[in-house]
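Aim 2, interim progress. The first record below pairs a target sequence with its structure tokens.
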Amino acid sequence: PKFIYLGLVSQPGNENITLNDVSFIFGAITMTTGIIGVPLGSYLSQRFNRKYPRADPYICAVGLILSAPLLAGAMLTVSANANLAYVLVFFGELALNLNWAIVADMLLYVVVPTRRSTAEAFQ
């Protein structure tokens, strides 16, 4: 949020924006993408695992590969266009949140049952 705030303040006409406003918008975006992204990742995993049994790591890889340029684009455009930066942050975080449910599931089927609680704790 601080980086977005500094980018917005550098634009003419945005001198009255506060860090609290930016933090609220960023938090709303993060919460929304978490609510959408985690179940979407689980759905994609269930859907693709029927036909492709090893689809989970590929879904995680696509999410990470998509998130990096989207979030980098948000950092580069925040000083020029705030709305575009927020949209890029939304889709970048959505791509990142695809991984949460899948990684937890992969951990459970990779680690032997007697070590799962320790593996979950370290994750």
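The second target in this work package is listed in the same format:
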Amino acid sequence: MKFLPRTVGMLTMMALLVVALSSMGCTGETNTGDFVVKNGVLTRYAGADPVEVGDSPPDDIEVGMVVNIPDNLGITAIGGLAFSYRPGISEVTIPKGVVSIGEGAFGNCTGLASVTIPDTLESIGNGAFAGCSSLTSVSIPDSVTSIGPSAFSDCSSLASVTMGSGVTSIGNHAFSGTKLSSPVIINDGKTLYYVPPGLTSYTIPDTVTTINDYAFSN
């Protein structure tokens, strides 16, 4: 009987360990260096940021953080808000295999000047890059079919978008608050999505059969 307390204590510790291990197995979450991955989704960037939230991005963008997401993590999606409010990030390379970028994933990364999007990507979520005020250009690969509302809204330096041929759907206000000077036409030239507010004249191409509700807003 005198060994009973010790036995009970050991059993309790073992039970707690089993519960902890079971919990880890259920979440499926893995912390791989700077990246937290759960079931193929990069849910959070855990790397340090040299610029505090609320500060301006570095004057010399070259001193900002360059983030290369490893292609050996088995990532198929960038989760919502995964990189949001990281003003020190200046460049991001998204690896092949990623098919979706979640809502607000890179929102308000005010120092982000360059993003490389793979040709496996299919969708860009709502507000995915909203408020990325240092982003000047973006190339959307042919694999992308949909771009969510406000995806690039308030990217105040964005002056050039190369639109892939596969895009058939763009949400409202996806490019509001940008510096785009050329209209955005999608769906094999059939849909006029956006006409920049500063444009003084524009001839709608004969191929256009549909005009987006907010194409001529502002």
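The chain has one domain: 26-181. This observation will shape the mutagenesis plan for the next reporting period.
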